[in-house]
Amino acid sequence: MDEQQKQERHKKKAQKQKEKVDASVAKATIERGVVIVITGNGKGKSTSGFGTVARCVGHGYKAAVVQFIKGKWDCGERDLLEGHGVPFSVMGTGFTWNTQDRAGDIAAAEEVWREAKKFLADPQYHLVLLDELTYMLGYDYLDKQEVLDAIANRPENQSVVVTGRGAIRELRDIADTVSEIKDEKHAFRSGVKARQGVDW
Ligand code: ATP
Ligand code: MG
Questions:
Q1: Pocket around ligand 1: residues whose beta carbon is below 6 Å from it?
Q2: pTM
């Protein structure tokens, strides 16, 4: 096969591919907000959620962030995004992995959930990030049905991103998009410390 034949073949293949893509794009005509669940054991769940918030704010829409587990460190995203008018509700007290205070954790979860509910009922928010919400459902810290209903009954044009490992079946069922991030390797296991500006 000479160069020109190769070129022709490539062109035909690309054209076919383009027709396929165009056909599926033409089929997607529904305009509404979506529920996205980013779960799994690999790194990149919260990063993905905050990336979506940045995208949203970059287009001039309003976004809100609710963090269900207080990070060990100040998160860089908060400092940046609050400066761009993104409200943050962060679980105030409690919740560490080794806490012995289940009642205290539940109270803290319920307090931050009340804030989340306000965002989920407010159509001015184009996007709500519920960072690490999965654990609250997995451990029954929040009323499962109430959380699922609040997400499902949100304003039509609002999208929600939920992050965290081990998303429960019911949450996956009400989601439009579910991504499971696979842990293939992580620097931490080779002894590399979590890095400011990269990991938080
Ligand atoms: P990130 O915030 O980096 O997107 P994540 O949201 O996917 O991570 P979390 O379980 O919320 O994952 O992780 C919290 C912290 O632990 C982050 O600093 C992250 O870099 C780190 N981390 C994430 N996945 C792993 C892993 N598989 N092994 C070790 N550390 C991890
Ligand atoms: Mg995370």
A1: 41-47, 163, 165, 183, 186, 188, 194, 199-200
A2: 0.90
Q: What is the largest CA-CA distance in the chain?
A: 74
Q: Which residue has the tokens 């907000």?
A: 33
Domain boundaries, the chain: 37-182
Closest ligand to Cα 77: 1
Distance 22 CA to ligand 2 centre (A): 35
* 39-77 per-position pLDDT tens digit: 999 999 999 999 999 999 999 999 999 999 875 567 889
Mutation test residue for ligand 1: of 36, 39, 43, the one with most atoms within 8 Å of CB: 43
Among the CATH numbers 1.10.3570.10, 3.40.50.300, 3.40.50.970, 3.40.50.960, which is that of 37-182?
A: 3.40.50.300
Q: How far is the CA of 44 from the centre of ligand 1 (A)?
A: 7
At CB < 8 A and 24+ separation, what contacts does 139-145 make?
Answer: 141/105, 141/106, 141/109, 141/110, 142/109, 142/110, 142/113, 144/168, 144/170
